[in-house]
Amino acid sequence: MSNKLSVLTKGIVKENPVLVLLLGTCPTLAVTTQASNAIGMGVAATAVLLCSNIVISALRKIIPDKVRIPCYIVLIASFVTIVQMIVSAFAPDLNDSLGIFLPLIVVNCIILGRAEAFASKNGVIDSALDAIGMGVGFTLTLFAMASIREIIGNGTWYGFSIPVLADNHVSILTMAPGGFLIFGVLIAIINHASKGKGVTRDEFGCDGCPSASSCGRSTCAKEGVIE
Question: What would the DSSP string read from start to end of 87-134?
């Protein structure tokens, strides 16, 4: 039970996909100008991550090793298409706000990274727990960034005007430089909270890299990640 709890919770802080593993930074910086967009993107990515992890784990002994990455991408793309159709049908405003970043979940490094590093090596239940934990960590990070940027940068939160801040907002936080600033501050906070012990280089070596098969592990060996 404790092991499964660890699998479920590690994505929130210790192996937070955005603030520790530094994956999915493009959508993180792009959609965090509003809290509503952040929640929408987080839930959509979590749904795709959960479905893909479960299916890939269930098929891990059937998918040939040489074509596993193309197979993973096809599965992920299928789930992204389903999610996008659901969002388009039931939340058209959110679909318009997220724009191209919703279909681009297909190439989100978090999704493919967890498929290669975890789902392809573990059972269905553990893979589902890993997906939920990583998805929650991703969503909370997006929500935290978006709330800070929207409140201080725009003087609103979830579309509601905030007294004083509405007339004295710092607009640069809603722009790209502000996104990088808040991103760096949150990384520093997580690093300080975990005392720099989030994930070590040994823990996040070639086994956690989707490109390990193509580089032959030579890059990591040169950098001292693996011996």
Answer: HHHH-HHHHHHHGGGTGGGGG-HHHHHHIIIIITTS-HHHHHHHHHHH
pTM of the model: 0.83
Residue range(s) defining the domain that contains residue 112 = 2-196
C-alpha neighbours within 13 Å on the C-beta side of residue 2 = 0
On whether residue 91 sits in a domain, the answer given is yes
Residue-wise pLDDT tens digits, 162-173: 888 878 888 899
> Phi-psi region for residue 99, left (φ > 0), alpha (ψ -120 to 50) or beta?
left
201 domain-assigned? no
Cα distance between residue 24 and residue 86, in whole Å: 22
Of 41-45, 60-64, 215-219, least confident by mean pLDDT is: 215-219
Residue 83 in any domain: the answer is yes
Helix/strand/coil percent split, the chain, to 5: 70, 0, 30
Q: What SS3 class is residue 160?
A: strand
Q: How many domains does the chain have?
A: 1
The per-residue pLDDT for range 203-213, each reduced to its tens digit, is: 445 555 545 55
Quick one: three-class SS letters along 7-39?
Answer: HHHCCCCCCCCCCCCCCCHHHHHHHCCCHHHHH
pLDDT digits (tens, 9 = 90+) for 70-87: 999 999 999 999 999 999
207 lies in some domain: no
